[in-house]
Design brief:
By secondary structure, the protein is an alpha/beta fold. The protein contains 14 helices and 12 strands. The protein has 2 domains: 7-243, Type I PLP-dependent aspartate aminotransferase-like (Major domain) (Aspartate Aminotransferase, domain 2, 3-Layer(aba) Sandwich); 248-336, Alpha-Beta Complex (Aspartate Aminotransferase, domain 1), CATH 3.90.1150. Helix content is 41%, strand content 16%. The protein has a 7-stranded mixed beta sheet with strand order 2-8-7-6-5-3-4, with helices on both faces. Strands 9-10-12 form a 3-stranded antiparallel beta sheet, covered by helices on one side. It has a two-stranded parallel sheet with strand order 1-11. Helix 1 packs antiparallel against helix 11 and helix 12 (249-264) runs parallel beside helix 14. The chain starts with a strand and ends with a helix.
Length: 338
């Protein structure tokens, strides 16, 4: 099965499994898991922050971050289509009483500085207190430029807000631009980095920030049921992922471009090449084909998600050149009979 649904479907390879099987473990709630501590320190250093916290998922990492920055009745400004507001089940409101303030997202994934400025509330007890600006890199595979992120963070800090970066696929942006992870993270008070997408670990994210921020976040992790015990096996996978699977992201990016170019050569299919900046390809097909295409591809052992406006195809370490060729061959055959 060739699975284009997401880079979350990546499987640990044999070497990663061996590292996990032989991992030294301890009780992380007591601070005794050596590999969890090493992972937290290494990711914090990578992102230029004082401390890190290993958590179960990117969703939990963003939730902990936002509830650490903002209290009940306070407000988080973020993009209306950003993951932390749109795809995380409303956790900040349901569990923390924190109010989301969704802002328009431009076609390149960015926010307008003027929208951020205008969204920050006056010091008036009729309004919630604007407490945090939460941004995202990458957004739908689109790289957010360092200068843009920095400018938005400067506005937030001038207005007294903290800043958080959902960097679930930050390393894709790093590889695409040659801007270091620490440079991207510099303007942010906290950053979340996912290990289980393109980096290929089976589970986990690391939240980083100042030592005092992470101390408060660790308490929130416990409140949310996220205290972990012998987690060294998962931390070992995360360490392997960050030490071995970052530079190879360029292969995913190259294959995504190859896929997009091949799709544009098939009559009836269109991909905007400017949107293919990392490992995601957004494919337009005739409206009449949208409902049946996933099932028809499944018959050829290719799996894709249902379309929204377009089909999202995600290239990752478990899709090689043969997988790209198989997808193009299968789609060409389907379109020829449409």
């Amino acid at each position: 099965m060739i699975d284009f649904r997401s880079d979350t479907v990546t499987m640990p390879d044999e070497t990663m499994r061996d590292v996990m099987a032989t991992a030294e473990v301890g009780d992380d709630v007591y601070g005794e898991d050596p590999l969890a501590s090493r992972l937290e320190t290494q990711i914090a250093d990578l992102l230029g922050k004082e401390a890190g916290l290993f958590v179960s998922s990117g969703t939990q990492s963003n939730l902990i971050a936002m509830l650490t920055h903002a209290s009940r009745g306070e407000e988080v400004l973020s993009g209306a289509q950003y993951h932390s507001l749109h795809y995380e089940a409303g956790g900040i409101a349901a569990l923390g009483g924190v109010i989301p303030c969704p802002l328009p997202v431009n076609s390149d994934g960015s926010l307008n500085a003027s929208d951020v400025e205008q969204a920050v509330k006056q010091d008036d007890y009729h309004y919630p207190v604007s407490r945090l600006l939460s941004l995202e890199n990458t957004h739908n595979g689109l790289v957010q430029q360092k200068q843009t992120l920095q400018a938005l963070c400067e506005i937030a800090h001038e207005k007294g807000l903290s800043t958080h970066l959902d960097g679930a696929r930050l390393m894709n942006a790093v590889i695409a631009t040659n801007v270091s992870a620490a440079d991207y993270a510099q303007s942010f008070d906290s950053v979340s980095l996912c290990l289980s997408k393109g980096l290929g670990a089976p589970v986990g994210s690391v939240l980083v920030g100042s030592a005092s921020f992470i101390s408060r976040a660790r308490r929130l992790r416990k409140m949310l049921g996220g205290g972990m015990r012998q987690v060294g096996m998962m931390a070992a996978a995360g360490l392997y992922a960050i030490n071995h699977n970052v530079s190879r992201l360029k292969d995913d990016h190259m294959r995504a471009k190859t896929l997009a170019q091949g799709l544009n050569d098939i009559s009836g299919i269109h991909v905007d090449m400017d949107s293919v900046q990392t490992n995601m390809v957004y494919m337009q097909v005739p409206e009449a084909m949208k409902s049946t295409l996933p099932e028809r591809l499944m018959a050829g052992n290719i799996r894709i998600s249902p379309a929204k406006k377009m089909f999202r195809l995600v290239v990752h370490k478990d899709i090689d050149d043969d997988g790209i060729s198989a997808m193009l061959h299968q789609l060409a055959s389907i379109m020829a009979t449409a």
